[in-house]
Design goal:
Distance between the termini: 21 Å
Shape: globular
Radius of gyration: 20 Å
Order of helices and strands: EEHEEEHEEEEEEEHHHEEEEEEHEEEEH
Number of helices: 7
Length: about 375
Amino acid sequence: MNSESIALKCSIARGGTSKAIFIMENELPKDPVTREKILLALFGSPDIRQIDGLGGADLLTSKLAIIGPPSRPDADVDYTFGQVSLTESFVEFNSICGNISSAVGPFAIDNGLVRPVEPYTTVRIHLTNIGKIMVAKVPVVKGKAAVEGDFAIDGVPGTGAKIALDWSEVVGSKTGKLLPTGNAQDILELDGRQYHASIVDAGSISVFVPAEELGMTGTETPQEIEANKELCALLEGVRGKACELLGFVTDWKNSLKETPYLPFLCPVAKPADYTCFTGKKVLAGEIDFVSKVYNMGLVNKTYAGSGAACTGAAARIKGGVLWNLLSEEAKTRPVLLIGHGAGKMPVEAIVEYGENGEAAIKTINVFRTARILMDGCAYVKASRIKD
């Protein structure tokens, strides 16, 4: 290439229902300001279409995975997640992405960072954003991460090799506690109204609120929610009140500006028949509850992987918002099915209670498929870095 462009070796991978650009950390400068400029140029941000970069013009496809050698002895690989804004000049590094996490193991195996073992290779992934370890169990065939399999996830066409993600070590990643306030439920007050909320920190810290208290059925499509500006303002207001309670902001009105990604706000409701935005029909008998993930002023079109881990944990908290929605049979079953915007998603969660009544996470497993879509070289305009 000519001197007007900077070349970067990278890959594009699908992890669960998201896509990300994967890049080795030694491809990027250590200076954070220069690094952010290069990454924004790589994605084509800020631009709602990301037309001059590799971003996919959607929060689910404007994601980044920086991969490097392990910086702690109990890990096989370091993984730093970045959420690249479409409309602003910033990359958010204060959170994690469970869907993209599912592609880290295959990427590490295929790039020689982890020795492959058949039929499964266990990859201990250091989530550098939060300083926690997630464990991936990756199917391997002939020394490479398996691609073919019979496991299907709603939101992705076809089937693939089933990857199990163990989130049991990722508890209290933001606050140090499974229940940051110490309560199964809290009351959030906004404009003279009260909203019941369960705030849980496992995977990604999330705030679970009954959909009916928000004037929702819980089965609305992401597009219907985002088109309702009054509803979106309410969702952000309730999320902001949770942020204020947690000490993330001093004024709840600044939540979208100061902490846009976390916590997730999750309106939840009892099982119901509904039609996904994709046209897929979900029956009440196929799921245990319905839930949405709202953050950054938008609604996740599918369901966040780290959010699913947190949702599984939240559903096991006795007296919590989600616990109260479950059938008696579902309360005893290890695997729950989340109804979301594109279908349903299984999560395995087991919580044990000590003599003091405190909940302890024993198992949180989320199941995904992933594959590397492209390896190659991307080019960014050198002038973007000098601006």
